[in-house]
Amino acid sequence: MINNADVIERLGLLIGKELTNENLHEALFCEEKHKKIRVRFNLGKYKYIQYNIKVQNHLDFQSYADISISGNPNTFRIGVEQKEGKVIINSDPRISYNYL
């Protein structure tokens, strides 16, 4: 399991990049000990990361994505925006403590 500080640091490296399963898996599972996880993902056998995008229509609120990682009970939240049909990460990640 990856600790929360490492997850936040690695998600922070994705600011300005497109939010995709491939980018998330490559950023979070970048160590040599995660080689099997990357191979299983690339073969299409497993997905270890899931994300849900919440679009905010109000002017005061920013759209965001909730990211959950298998084996980690926390949910991580990052701000996103849509540009040219792509979802771009535009804010620092943080742990979301909404467990409803």
How would you describe what is shown here?
With 100 residues, this protein is α+β, with helices and mostly antiparallel strands. Helix content is 25%, strand content 28%. The chain is built from three helices and five strands; from the N terminus they run H-H-H-E-E-E-E-E. Strands 1, 2, 3, 4 and 5 form a five-stranded antiparallel sheet that branches. A hairpin with a 5-residue loop joins strand 2 (64-69) and strand 3. The longest helix has 9 residues, at 4-12. The chain is globular and about 45 Å long. It starts with a helix and ends with a strand. The model has no long low-confidence stretch (mean pLDDT 89).
What keywords describe this structure?
single chain, 100 residues, alpha+beta, five-stranded antiparallel beta sheet, 3 helices, 25% helix, globular
Helix content: 25-40%
Main beta-sheet annotation: 5 strands, antiparallel
- Overall shape: globular
Q: Report the portion of residues in β strands.
A: 25-35%
**CA-based gyration radius:** 14 Å
In summary, what is this structure?
With 100 residues, this protein is of the alpha+beta class.
Write the layout of secondary structure elements.
Layout: H1 4-12, H2 21-28, H3 35-42, E1 49-54, E2 64-69, E3 75-83, E4 86-89, E5 94-96
Antiparallel strand pairs: 1-2, 2-3, 3-4, 3-5
